[in-house]
């Protein structure tokens, strides 16, 4: 009897402590006196997101729409974790550009000693990030990106082999653009030539470890403890594989002695004071982590929109064919520069289907908003809801309509500076934005030059997104009918 009694009391005690902790966590914005969305017990303001009922971007968009104009930012909770959601485009501009020095961190978890590949540009913060960023800026120069173009073009040739000469066919577009994007990452980030990347492909699908929601929460809130407990974000065999590949490719390259620059690995190891090899391998993994998903998603979304808008698709194809003709069929930097309309189509794709639906910053110093009583405290996590901004009817008229003309010079100038941020910007913006654009364009040239795309019975319209991911991905594979044009 006594035992049961004690067990009951302990359980009651534990529940009370848990309840009190949750209540204290969810009282943060109230104690700060900051406008906020009232949280629900445990889930805060993202209830449907945790169980996959809706996408994170929709939850953010709802809060954005409800509070925009009422304050420069609003507080909300992702489960128990308080976040600031920025509502005012001027404040977005300050955080990203003018006062970026207050917001150099992202606050993601990394564990460099236990998991060396997590020491990458995306995950690191503080002085480690700063010196790495300086090194990486030497790698991602326009000149270097142009040097990668011939290899990119070579890789893109496989798209046309894949599509072949068959007259009309239903194709799994997700697969087609997925293979291209993976070939590019295998080659550019890891130095793997050739085409058969089966093992690489396997590990790109399976690198997430068994990180549970509560572990992820602990790692974000208490990184020191998580590192002490040696939390690992990724599956160990996958990390071992990626590290092995990167290191052996670098050694191979040194043995062969200075081949022309064709990969990020080489660009890093040819720098004046190169990083050590494992740190370079970490960057390769970071590029895969940050870049593969959005690249294939963007190409897929783009073909989907072009299939639904045949007149825009014809305009792209005409532009591509004419430009190639003027450059004797060669995809050169000049040639890409002239693909003006195709670039507008790409940007409109990134606006309507923003692969990273929000940007994340952590305040490294207290930030007082000029001319107001509001303060962003040191350590606060800040979300910039880019996808919501990209579909804000006060910024983009009829936001659900796909209309590349929004990216004509005149129209662009009429919008506020922070109205379009698919790659983020400023100090912590996407370091590979230029490279990504180049790769997307090269892919589109190969895809559109000789083939036409149209919706078919298996095309899901309207587009549905995968709610279980923070990055924007189609829920089911994109299928289109493909036809060769002469
Ligand atoms: C369509 C393709 C891509 C999109 C839309 C995209 C978008 C983004 C965004 C929104 C961020 C966060 C920026 C911020 O917080 O302000 C980011 C960061 C980053 N991206 Fe990309 N990205 C793409 C492709 C790539 C590729 C191909 C690579 C690598 C080759 C890459 C490497 C990185 C890295 C390393 C960071 C972290 C930079 C830092 O924190 O210093 N991205 N990207
Ligand atoms: C389409 O391709 C993807 C990626 O390779 C694959 O996972 C999926 O099973 C394919 N879907 C269909 C229905 O063929
Ligand atoms: C597309 O967007 C990028 C910013 O991500 C911008 O630098 C570029 O000029 C835009 N291009 C066009 C044609 O609008």
Automatic annotation (TrEMBL):
Database matches in InterPro entries: Cyt_P450, Cyt_P450_CS, Cyt_P450_E_grp-I, Cyt_P450_sf, Insect_CytP450_Detox
Predominant location: endoplasmic reticulum
Key word Endoplasmic reticulum present: yes
TM segment ranges: 7-29
Residues involved in heme binding: 430
Cofactor(s) the protein requires to work: heme
Lineage top rank: taxon: Eukaryota
Cellular component GO terms, alphabetical: endoplasmic reticulum membrane
Keyword Ubl conjugation: no
Signal peptide (UniProt feature, chain positions): none
A single MF term (Gene Ontology): iron ion binding
Keywords: Endoplasmic reticulum, Heme, Iron, Membrane, Metal-binding, Microsome, Monooxygenase, Oxidoreductase, Transmembrane, Transmembrane helix
Mode of membrane association: Peripheral membrane protein
Subcellular location: Endoplasmic reticulum membrane; Microsome membrane
PANTHER family registered for this protein in UniProt: CYTOCHROME P450, CYTOCHROME P450 6A16, ISOFORM B-RELATED
Family: Belongs to the cytochrome P450 family.
Protein name: Probable cytochrome P450 6u1
């Amino acid at each position: 009897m006594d035992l049961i009694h004690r067990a009951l009391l302990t359980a009651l005690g534990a529940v009370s402590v848990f309840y009190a902790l949750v209540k204290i966590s969810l009282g943060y914005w109230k104690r700060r006196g900051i406008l906020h969305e009232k949280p629900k017990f445990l889930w805060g303001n993202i209830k449907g997101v945790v169980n996959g009922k809706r996408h994170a971007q929709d939850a953010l968009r709802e809060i954005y729409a409800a509070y925009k104009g009422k304050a420069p930012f609003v507080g909300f909770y992702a489960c128990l974790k308080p976040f600031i959601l920025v509502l005012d485009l001027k404040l977005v501009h300050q955080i990203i550009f003018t006062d970026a020095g207050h917001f150099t961190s992202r606050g993601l978890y990394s564990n460099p000693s236990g998991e060396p590949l997590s020491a990458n540009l995306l995950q690191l913060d503080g002085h480690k990030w700063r010196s790495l960023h300086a090194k990486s800026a030497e790698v991602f120069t326009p000149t270097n990106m142009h040097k990668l173009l011939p290899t990119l073009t070579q890789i893109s040739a496989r798209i046309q082999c894949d599509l072949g000469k068959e007259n009309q066919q239903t194709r799994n577009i997700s697969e087609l653009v997925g293979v291209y994007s993976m070939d590019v990452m295998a080659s550019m980030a890891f130095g793997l030539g050739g085409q058969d990347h089966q093992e690489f492909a396997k590990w790109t699908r399976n690198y997430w470890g068994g990180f549970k929601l509560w572990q992820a929460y602990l790692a974000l809130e208490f990184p020191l403890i998580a590192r002490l407990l040696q939390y690992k974000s990724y599956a160990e065999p996958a990390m071992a594989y990626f590290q092995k590949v990167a290191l052996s490719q670098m050694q191979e390259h040194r043995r062969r002695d200075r081949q022309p620059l064709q990969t990020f690995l080489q660009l890093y190891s040819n720098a004046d004071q190169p990083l050590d090899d494992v740190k370079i391998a970490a960057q390769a993994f970071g590029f895969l982590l940050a870049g593969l998903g959005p690249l294939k998603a963007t190409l897929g979304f783009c073909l989907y929109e072009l299939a639904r808008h045949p007149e825009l698709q014809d305009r792209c194809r005409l532009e591509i064919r004419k430009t190639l003709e003027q450059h004797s069929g060669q995809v050169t930097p000049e040639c890409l520069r002239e693909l003006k309309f195709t670039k507008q189509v790409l940007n409109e794709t990134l606006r309507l289907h923003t692969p990273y639906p929000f940007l994340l910053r952590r305040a490294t110093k207290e930030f007082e908003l000029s001319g107001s009583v509001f303060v962003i405290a040191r350590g606060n996590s800040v979300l910039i809801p880019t996808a919501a901004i990209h579909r804000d009817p006060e910024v983009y008229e009829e936001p659900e309509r796909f209309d590349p003309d929004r990216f004509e010079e005149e129209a662009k100038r009429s919008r506020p500076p922070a109205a379009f941020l698919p790659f983020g910007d400023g100090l912590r913006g996407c370091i590979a934005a230029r490279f990504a654009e180049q790769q997307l364009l090269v892919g589109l040239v190969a895809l559109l030059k000789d083939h036409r795309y149209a919706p078919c019975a298996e095309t899901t319209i309207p587009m549905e997104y995968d709610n279980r991911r923070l990055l924007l991905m189609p829920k089911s594979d994109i299928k289109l009918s493909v036809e060769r044009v002469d």
